[in-house]
Amino acid sequence: MKLNILCIGDVVGRPGKRIIADNLHSIIRDNEIDCVIANAENAAGGSGLTPQIYHKLIKYGVNLISLGDHVFKKKDIISVLESNDNIARPANLSAYAAGRGFAMYKTAKGATVAVVPLIGRIFMKPADSPYDCIDSMLGKLKNQADIIIVDMHAEATSEKVSMGYYLDGRVSCVFGTHTHIATADEKILPKGTAYITDVGMTGAHYSVLGRKIESVLKNFRTQMPCPFEIATEDVRLNGIIVTIDDGTKKAEKISRFEFKGIAGDSANYDSDDGKPEYANGFE
User: Fold this and answer.
1) Residue 159 C-alpha from the chain's centroid
2) Residues contacting 34, CB < 8 A, separation 6+
3) Is the pLDDT of residue 206 over 60?
4) In this structure, is residue 243 part of a structural domain?
5) Distance of alpha carbon 62 from alpha carbon 21, whole angstroms
6) What rounded mean pLDDT belongs to the chain?
7) Residue 70: active-site member
8) Is 246 part of any domain?
9) Mean pLDDT of 81-95
10) Are 161 and 197 in contact (CB under 8 A)?
């Protein structure tokens, strides 16, 4: 049996949520998608995730939510992390951190998909070894899930590429997030694992990583702190579609996916208060 899995890159603020609200159901239908995975660590004003946004994303058609270094920026997400099995924080955070290190979804075809977020350690905050962490998890997960996907949330491309080769043949797909720029290196690795260094960003692309250009330039030129307002123009959904055989666990195809939104408010989006969104920094 073949499964088509859509992995969506970092959802940034209100524009990212709106394009998902308007278009995800039709994207699922038109591409015969069996499971949708989205990295949503930037969904709440560009940094973090709230319970309200979590429920919206699930309503819009996302099946599994992965998170990264901003997982705890909104403290009220902790109760969601501890009570739901379709959302996961980075597995290689402290064993005492709230939440689960993997999330699972049973598809309509009967196969179960698991996503494991891992966080990098180069140019990032301290974390346990992602290699030791995934080694300790795979034996258990293989008894629970038919397909295992890894979201490698890291700054350094070398760290993402290395993890791809490390897990080649051991998981079905390794996709990178965090840097918000889609890379052109999608491939099937020699032992059957689909790989891409970064799936890109779902949000405003006339921006600097989803933030208004003027705000970021001011910060870079003056070296003075200033809030980064979330950009709103040229909204796109970035991701990949991976076709996986649930018998062999190997990927048969990986394709970059981009959907360009239409300007204007969404008819399907559950609107927020309409005020400008600000983030303290990148990611």
Assistant:
1) 17
2) 3, 4, 5, 107, 108, 109, 111, 113
3) yes
4) yes
5) 10
6) 94
7) yes
8) yes
9) 97
10) yes
